[in-house]
Design brief:
- The protein is of the alpha/beta class and about 375 residues long.
- It has one domain (about 5-360): Alpha/Beta hydrolase fold, catalytic domain (Rossmann fold, 3-Layer(aba) Sandwich).
- It contains twelve helices and twelve strands.
- The protein has helices at about 5-10, 20-25, 110-125, 125-130, 145-155, 185-195, 200-205, 240-245, 255-260, 285-300, 320-325, 350-360, and strands at about 35-45, 45-55, 60-70, 95-100, 130-140, 175, 210, 215, 275-280, 305-310, 330-335, 340-350.
- The strands form two sheets. A ten-stranded mixed sheet has the order 1-2-4-3-5-6-9-10-11-12, with helices on both faces. A two-stranded antiparallel ribbon has the order 7-8.
- Helix 3 (about 110-125) crosses helix 5.
- The radius of gyration is 19 Å and the shape is globular.
Length: about 375
């Protein structure tokens, strides 16, 4: 069993430290960040925005992390997430937080098409913004985690959408945080996990609520899109987020549920995956991440699963999470491509883990 405090954990990541390896800077240096908001696609009267956070004064092109917000496929904006300047533009990554089309205006796979369209737009405009088109990763949370997994696993030509079709929509890695993977199993898993669901970490349970990574206050437009009713809604309910995204009660349309499941598209040769899920999550059962991990491992792919003690749903939206309640105990399962699984227990900050992951797969 491995027990590391935050300082030891960071020291152990020196091989993946982005600043000295990529940009020739002191490891403590952070980069000034500029923000540009652009339209990457239009559908009728609906323009889709992409907020691009660009680290300045780099010695080279920036690798890109495309962030896909949560919100049950029906809500959220480009600011529904942590502080993108801090995570991780100041470290030398370009951060691209995107809008995608929401229910009930669309159903799957329109939202997945938007993700691939955004990736192709980034590759097309890489020279203009000083980006490295060979180094693009996806980071999705909740519904965005589901879309990140879909976009990372589906083959070229599937769910591509429109625009810049001469460019590839393939990505080099995927961080799927608490995203659903098989809608029709979620209620059964929720019931199974009920007896062992952990309490939320006391430091978080007593903290002010977070919206878009900041305490109190709601960014303009955040959460104003039509969505399912407030309060717990069983996943099998006709008005659940999952039923709305496939366009029918999920237990009545098994073909549509399979069509929208990342498990359907698992194959050998998938990009590396990191799956993270809180063990206090009462919205998406953590077995959804276990299912995807085990499918990717069985296919021989590079995948890591981290189940984190005391963390509820949407934990990546809280920018001060690690300072407030970390480091966190994590049960870790790691399967290297073509290798054998290893298991360990670690203590680390969740943003530290994410930073190290992207540094490993998106930097030379």
């Amino acid at each position: 069993m491995m027990m590391l405090d935050r300082r030891e954990f960071l020291a152990g990541l020196s091989a993946f430290s982005i600043a000295p390896r990529v940009f020739g800077a002191d490891s403590a240096e952070t980069y000034p960040v500029s923000l540009q908001s652009v339209t990457y696609a239009s559908h009728g009267r609906k323009d889709l925005a992409l907020d691009l956070y660009l680290p300045q004064r780099l010695n080279g092109r920036a690798p890109i992390i495309v962030f896909l917000h949560g919100g049950g496929w029906s809500g959220g904006t480009t600011t529904t997430g942590p502080d993108f300047k801090r995570f991780f533009a100041q470290d030398g990554f370009a951060m691209a937080s995107i809008e995608y089309r929401l229910t009930p205006s669309v159903t799957f796979p329109s939202n997945a098409e938007d993700v691939k369209t955004a990736v192709r737009w980034i590759r097309t405009n890489a020279d203009r913004y000083g980006l490295d088109p060979r180094k693009i990763g996806l980071w999705g949370t909740s519904a965005g985690g589901h879309l990140a997994a879909i976009a990372g696993l589906t083959p070229p030509g599937m769910f591509e959408g429109e625009g810049n079709l001469g460019q590839s929509s393939e990505v080099q890695c995927v961080l799927d945080a608490y995203g659903p993977s098989s809608f029709n199993l979620m209620d059964a898993e929720t019931e199974y996990e009920r007896a062992t669901l952990q309490p939320v970490s006391p430091a978080l349970a007593n903290a002010p609520p977070m919206v878009a990574g900041v305490v109190a206050g709601t960014p303009a437009g955040a959460g104003l899109q039509p969505g399912p009713p407030r309060g717990p809604v069983p996943h099998d309910h006709p008005n659940s987020a999952e039923s709305r995204v496939v366009g029918a009660p999920i237990q009545t349309v098994p073909d549509k549920v399979k069509f929208a499941s990342p498990l359907t598209y698992v194959k050998r040769g998938a990009p590396p995956f990191l799956l993270m899920h809180g063990l206090a999550d009462d919205s998406v059962p953590y077995h959804q991440s276990i299912l995807l991990y085990e499918a990717l491992a069985a296919a021989g792919d590079d995948v890591t699963l981290r189940l984190v003690d005391g963390l509820p749903h949407t934990f990546f939206n809280r920018s001060n999470l690690d300072e407030l309640a970390g480091p966190f105990r994590m049960d870790v399962r790691t399967h290297p491509a073509g290798g054998l699984e290893s298991r360990s227990v670690e203590r680390a900050g969740v943003f530290d883990v994410a930073r190290a992951y992207f540094a490993r797969y998106l930097t030379p």
